[in-house]
Amino acid sequence: GDQVEQSPSALSLHEGTGSALRCNFTTTMRAVQWFRKNSRGSLINLFYLASGTKENGRLKSAFDSKERYSTLHIRDAQLEDSGTYFCAAGNSGTYQRFGTGTKLQVVP
Amino acid sequence: EAAVTQSPRNKVAVTGGKVTLSCNQTNNHNNMYWYRQDTGHGLRLIHYSYGAGSTEKGDIPDGYKASRPSQENFSLILELATPSQTSVYFCASGDNYAEQFFGPGTRLTVL
User: Fold this and answer.
1) Sign of CA dihedral B102, B99, A39, A87
2) Is A108's pLDDT higher than 70?
3) Structural domain of A40
4) B6-32 burial, b if ≥16 CB within 10 A, otherwise e?
């Protein structure tokens, strides 16, 4: 069965607001990676975590291997944050499986 | 400068034809991967490789072959393309227990 469950599938935010995306894992994962697919279709690396939290500008991610989840928080959302966000996680060290994505639309 | 490149970026093929998608990485990573991404799905792993000469089946390998002739190059081969293989294909490179880096994607349409 699916090992990575991502939610929500779609999200609309007004500029300046924030929210959280979440990935739950059906098995223990060793690391998680977050990406954004931009309007050109490119996958942009946002975070790679083996544990704990990381922050970069208006984005912050957390990964709890024991509790089997990861989150991506977006604050002060801007129009250019729009896109589809994916998490991916692996337990083998060799390859990872992706969530189904969260389509984020930031509106004025 | 881009560390993972793919060619072609767009491809239209006919049903039953042979398609080869190419990927090159300058990251000197051991592992390389081929995924496809369809609406409503995340990226799904087709084939991957641990290094030159190795290919491994991913989650959805049927209808695809892969070739890793060198550390830098990893190809995905559709011997007999079908319309169900219309998709966007992404190549990636990475090392064990480390992040993956993706190419820009190839949009394949099979008519």
Assistant:
1) positive
2) yes
3) 4-107
4) beeeebebeeeeebebbbbbebebbbb
CA A99/CA A80 separation, integer angstroms: 22
Whether A94 shows a pLDDT value over 80: the answer reads no
- All residues of chain B having their beta carbon less than 8 Å from the beta carbon of residue A4 are 42
Q: B97 vs A93: CB contact, 8 Å cut-off?
A: yes
Q: Between chains, do B42 and A100 touch, taking CB under 8 Å as contact?
A: yes
Residue in chain A lying closest to B47 (CA): A95
Q: Where are the domains of chain B?
A: 4-110
What does the alpha-carbon distance between residue B35 and residue B102 come to, in Å, rounded to a whole number? 10
d(CA B90, CA B38): 11
Flag if A42 and B104 touch (Cβ within 8 Å): yes
User: What does the pLDDT look like over B26-57, one tens digit per residue?
Assistant: 999 999 999 999 988 889 999 999 999 999 99
- Tokens standing for A106? 């930031």
* 3-state class (DSSP) for residue A1: coil
Instruction: Please name every residue paired with B56 in a beta bridge, in sequence order, or none if there are none.
Output: B48
Nearest CA in chain B to A100: B42
Instruction: Collect all residues of chain A within an 8 Å Cβ-Cβ radius of residue B96.
Output: 93-94
Instruction: State in words which class domain B4-110 has.
Output: mainly beta
DSSP class of residue A67 equals T
Domain total in chain A? 1
